[in-house]
Amino acid sequence: MSRTALVTGASSGIGLEVAKLLVDKGYRVLGTSRDPGAVAHPIPGVEYLALDLADRASVAACAAAAGEVDIVVNNAGESQSGPLEELPAEAVDRLFQTNVFGAVQLTQKLLPGMRARGYGRVIMVGSMLASFPLAYRGSYVAAKAALKGFASAARQELSPFGVWVATVEPGSIATGIGQRRTRYVADDSVYRTDFDTMISNLDANERAGIRPAQVADVIVKAIEADKPREFYAVGSNAPLVFLLKRLLPIEVVSSMIARRHGLRR
């Protein structure tokens, strides 16, 4: 049976690689972009739909245009940085609408069809920062943690209907996202030196990170599993660091994360 998959943020990075892999495997693939006409390298076989997750009307229009969908990969989002004291309220509101509420609203509109057909896969693309918080990334950390919470609770609700929800947390990935990250810190901020140090190390870690295709492979394996796991982590020595998190006091783990990004805590 041919399945239809909707992949948000399919014009670059992880979303692009997921869309390519699903097309190769014979799925009908709908990919989203804020401006489908401006996709630099459209993937043969992918149908592009407009979606701006920051706009609730756009979310509703995308769901209506997609029609019956068996699989949704909630990948699109914004990467945001800034000290808590200086984050503009409107920036945090936009981040949560884009990274959390938009994904939830889109999924809500697709779930009735999945449930009625007795089959569905919902993949939330999170971040290992949700499990290992980092200074000056608080809004992003909180958004990804919220997305993970929605996913874990919904999984319990939906699995009796054959709809499985999973979260995939990538670590550092070489996607070039650092060039698109929104940053909120004043030039004369008391946090400026620490912030710049963190960003410099974060960008270096991402440049040395795993390829998006490796994350896409994990996502597609989750989609095709008979019973997808609740949680997958990939990159940044995931098995080791999650083991350390279980074995060491949280303060020790937090200090290790800070030092990895050039901060002394």
TrEMBL record:
For this protein, the record's Gene3D superfamilies field holds: NAD(P)-binding Rossmann-like Domain (3.40.50.720)
Q: SMART domains of this UniProt entry?
A: PKS_KR
Q: Which Pfam families match?
A: adh_short (PF00106)
Task: Output the InterPro entries linked to this UniProt entry.
Answer: KR_dom, NAD(P)-bd_dom_sf, Sc_DH/Rdtase_CS, SDR_fam
From the broadest rank down, the organism's phylogenetic lineage runs: Bacteria, Bacillati, Actinomycetota, Actinomycetes, Mycobacteriales
Q: What PROSITE patterns would the database entry show?
A: ADH_SHORT
Would you identify the family this protein belongs to, as annotated?
A: Belongs to the short-chain dehydrogenases/reductases (SDR) family.
Q: Which organism is it from?
A: Tsukamurella soli
- Oxidoreductase is among the record's keywords: yes
> Does this UniProt record's set of keywords contain Endoplasmic reticulum?
no
Q: What is this protein called?
A: SDR family oxidoreductase
Q: List keywords of the entry alphabetically.
A: Oxidoreductase
Q: Which residues form the Ketoreductase domain?
A: 3-171
